[in-house]
Amino acid sequence: MTGMWTLFRKELLRFWKVSFQTVAAPVMTALLYLLIFSHVLEGRVQPYPGISYTEFLIPGLVMMSMLQNAFANSSSSLIQSKVMGNIVFLLLTPLSFWEFFSAFLAAAIVRGLVVGVGVYLVTVFYAPPSVQHPLLILLFTLAGCGMMGAMGIIAGIIADKFDQMAAFQNFIIMPLSFLSGVFYSIHSLPPFWQKVSHLNPFFYVIDGFRYGFFGISDVSPWLSLGVVLTSFFALSWATLRLLKSGYKLRG
Amino acid sequence: MPAAINIQQVHKFFGKLHALRGIDLTIEQGEFFALLGPNGAGKSTLINLLAGLLRPTSGNLSVLGHDVAGDYRAARQLLGVVPQELVFDPFFNVREMLRFQAGYFGRGRENDPWIDEILEGLGLADKAGSNMRTLSGGMKRRALIAQALAHKPPVLVLDEPTAGVDVELRQMLWEFIKKLNRDGHTIILTTHYLEEAETLCSRVAMLKQGQVVALDSTRDLLQRYARKSLRLRLEPNQLPASLQPMLRSQDNDVFTLALNETAALEGVLATLRENGIRIDDLQVSDADLEDVFVEILHQ
């Protein structure tokens, strides 16, 4: 237990020491999205009756930031220590693959939460959204960040260099998060693109999370919860398999 | 009493490359042991197998009786490894890093006095608060050793600990490691500086192309192979055929011959005289590990 706890604490301290970059920067980015998109679209677009565009946008931005940062935490920590070579200090320890996984995952979730709370605090003044189902909000937060934390571990294991990691970010994470309905309701899309959006697991995290605030969503929140939890468990299983096999970590 | 390290019939393939070809090696507790061999002989591979960074293709390795695969938790608790490369975590200072490292092994604040002790012993005390990035190469090397010792392992493996380290620091590191050995730690090292192995290590294994080609106490190795080296500069610059079997190495115009005893010198001189060869320079010295090393590798 001490070993896993130590690794968890180290991972927290790692991002906290550079919190200007790991927390303040994503909060700032989300705030810019809010200012620009709500300036352009407020009054022109109303995704749900009775809910202003800015209100609609806030939960999506909070969740998108959480997802991206949970991913960034585990993936950047792993790729850095692989490139620097200091990953050996972890591999030399008696930590099991379970402990390794749990510590990295928990730290990724915490990073996501800290950024999420930060984004919420700076955006909430523009249009305080209601909170209908706090428990669902929490569930989607944990499962969403967990899913991305696991994906970050996988990316960190597979990538050998920073540019491979950047490709993962830019060609997988960014498209999935921008096309997930953060900035619009997918009901406003042509039927074909609605169908495509349904294949994106990020869509369900955003949609279900938003349901927790407004009690309205594009698809049933239970379907969303099912998809998100399934994704979380599937990715965790894959991560554990990789870690257990020692793939790219132990030759 | 289990051996500090027990290696049985270990083979390791990297693709088609047969890097280790059936290594058998037992290192007893309290030994100061050297693993020698040219680059690519398999020293680091063997160390990485012990540390669990690599997995053997076949064979078994254990640390103090604990199998490094089946009982890896116990085996890793008992083993400290100083990697060859100067790797470090750029986010933390020396003390933080040591505390984390000890923590991974389940050690908490009760371990702090030990951390102070190794910081002191390695001359790192005044750098405890410095970020790893800001340390000089020599300081980073010490920090690596401290990191391997953070969980107080009874068996310490050092992979080329003095590579790229100046003379003064090398002396200081060896004093520290000798003290660890006196305190009961088993020390295993690889080094390119054979005189270091000769003065420090009680036993030596030589690796060549993935096989142990010599394994003995340093003293016996030195005795078994020629005890004396005879260096000759000759005019004309050629060695008579009858002396060729004694030739250990040739460096331009200096022939180094192996002498089993000083008395054999007379025969050499007589042969040279018979062949009309003049001696420009002559030097007799005790054979060192380097001579033995060269001799074994050329066998």
- The CATH architecture of the domain at 1-78 and 153-160 and 183-224 in chain B is 3-Layer(aba) Sandwich
How are helices and strands ordered from N to C of chain A?
Answer: HHHHHHHHHH
Instruction: Note the total helix count of chain A.
Output: 10
| Largest pleated sheet of chain A | none
Q: CATH superfamily membership of the domain at 1-78 and 153-160 and 183-224 in chain B, which one?
A: P-loop containing nucleotide triphosphate hydrolases
Q: State the name of the first-level CATH class of the domain at 1-78 and 153-160 and 183-224 in chain B.
A: Alpha Beta
Largest interface: A-B, 28 and 32 residues
Q: Could you estimate the helical fraction of the residues of chain B in percent?
A: 25-40%
Q: What's the β-strand tally of chain A?
A: 0
Mean pLDDT of chain B: 90
Short description:
Chain A is mostly helical and 251 residues long. Helix content of chain A is 76%, strand content 0%.
Write up this protein.
Chain A is an all-alpha fold and 251 residues long. Chain A has helices at 2-17, 19-41, 53-84, 88-91, 97-123, 134-158, 162-178, 191-197, 201-214, 221-245. The longest helix of chain B is centred in the middle third of the chain and has 16 residues, at 167-182. In chain B, the strands form three sheets. A six-stranded mixed beta sheet of chain B has the order 6-7-8-3-9-10, sandwiched between helices. A four-stranded antiparallel beta sheet of chain B has the order 2-1-4-5. In chain B, 33% of the residues lie in helices and 30% in strands. Chain B has 299 residues and is an alpha/beta fold. In chain B, helix 3 (94-104) packs parallel to helix 5 (137-149). The relative contact order of chain B is 0.14. Classes of the chains: A mainly alpha (251), B alpha/beta (299).
